[in-house]
Each structure stands twice: as structure tokens, then as C-alpha cells.
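Revision sheet: C-alpha cells.
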Amino acid sequence: MCAVIGEALVDMVQVEPDGPYVAHPGGSPLNTAVGLQRLGHRTHLLARLSSRPLGESVWRHAVENGLDLTASVRSDGPATLAFVTLDDECQASYDFYVEGTVDWGWTDAELSRLPGAAAVVHTGSLAALLAPGAAALERLFARLHDEGGRLLSFDPNVRPAVAGDRAAAVVRVERFVASSDAVKVSSEDLSWLYPDDDPDGVLERWLALGPALVVMTAGSDGCKALTARGDELEVSGHQIAVTDTIGAGDAFASGLLSGLLDAGVVTPAALSLISADVATAVLRRATLVAALTCQRSGADPPTRKRYAEAANDAGELDPWLAATGGDRR
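Predicted:
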């Protein structure tokens, strides 16, 4: 069982230049949770959800995708809005309305709802940076790390428009990295966090902080990863017709965790011993899941069945496809 903690907001997407904005449920943690559920893994979402009409639409989206919301929180405050525009290459950029919205009010008591049976716990994005809830979430991850046993995953998914002071953001991100077992980060994240540093050097520093797996995504160029065993891995991207990049990084995160779950790598100890072959297969799954999401409008990750068909079409050997099935979407 998985648990994903963080924001579940409303993406206002402008598909055509100067055109209207269309509302879609979104937010990196929600997208990652939906991706995991569609790939066949029972997933709890811990989100602070608005009970107003926009928030209700997010709630329905989560329920319709099979997420367990029993540990989520309902609030009568406004939902967070992310206004998304696409450039000529279908790359998404974001502007956020976060002041006074419900997503950032996490307390220690609310986070204590985390299901005890959740073997894998993932967080990141705005929820890990915005006060006051980020501090409570950081405390939770530090405590879970000290307790051991659960596989902790983190994706900073930095949004410079609301990340605040760069130096303070780096400090908080590195504390989450130190409390995590698997870390996924984009090359864009690293460029903003460390504008004067070589990304490969940053990955090495992050690995030294304690994770067993650190992965950097680079869009269509694929990804590279470092493991605690000393393996340096690279997986190529897929050449596809991109509809948009909304939710691509979140889909990669869900594919990464899905591969680890199917491989039985669900504890810190197991991840510390992951072989290069298994890690590479996991990265290939994550890369293809992200590519499939880029072929569809908005954050709309594939089901397990759709992923299996695409892997077969691409001639990719995925050793775990005989596990849980899923309906096409």
C-alpha cells in the first residue's frame, strides 16, 4: 500500500494562446497518487481539500480514480489555483494563487492519520516548501526516517514563482532529501536550486546525504540515476509527439514507485541493495509512463493496461507486467 501526501489543487489550463482557461484537478502529489492507482497499486491520498465547489471537483476526481481519502482533511477554505500556459513547444509554465488556500495548513495531528499499513510514502512539491504545513511535513518525514521500515520518496518539483528565497528552499529541500530513500528531481529543479553547480555533482552530494537512489529527469533526453551501491545509470527518453508536459514529472514519479513496488523493493534496506539491472528496468518503466502522459492533454497518466501495451509496442521488456492488471483509460 502507498500513501502520497501533499496538495490537490485546480489547474486552470490555457490550451490555446489568448484562449480561455479550463479547470482540471491537479497538483503534483494528487497526480502522482492517481498515477500509482492507475498502475495497479492501492494508494491513500493525504490532502487538505476544499469543500467549496472547486474543491469538490478535485474530491470527485480522486474518488473516481479509486484513491482512498480516509486520511485526507476537508476544509471550507478556498482551493489553490495553478494557472498553466503552454509555449510553442507544448512546455507548461505555472502561476499560482496560494494565499489563504487550504493546502498548506498541515498540522502534526492531521499528518498522524498516515495509515500504518502504507509501506511506501511519497511527498514533495509545494506542500514541502510552503508554510506553515511544510514544517509539519518535514517533521513527519524525519520521524519516519528515524523509525525505519517504510520506503520514503521525495520529489521537490520546485515552482520558482512561489518557492520564495532560494537559499531557504535549498535548506528545506536538502533536509527532505536526507530523510528520504528515493529522490526524483528534474534538471530544471536543479538549475533553479543550484544555478552555479554542475547537476552531476549535486546528485552525488544528495546521495551522500542518505538516499539509496537519486534520479534526475531531463525531459525527452531521459534520466540518469545514482545508487547507494555505486551504480551510475542512464535511460534514454522516447521520441514522441508531445501534446503537453503537464504532469509528466508526476507520472515519472508514479512509474518509478510502481516499478519499485512490483520489484518488491519496498524497504530502505531493499533499496540500498537494488541491482543495476532492476534499477534500470524501474527507470525504463518511469520514462515510458511519463512519455505516455505527455501524449495526452493535461495530467492524465496511463493505466497499467495502457502502459503494458505501450511497453510491448516499444519492445521493452518489463519483468513485472504479469502483476496487477488495470482498465484502459
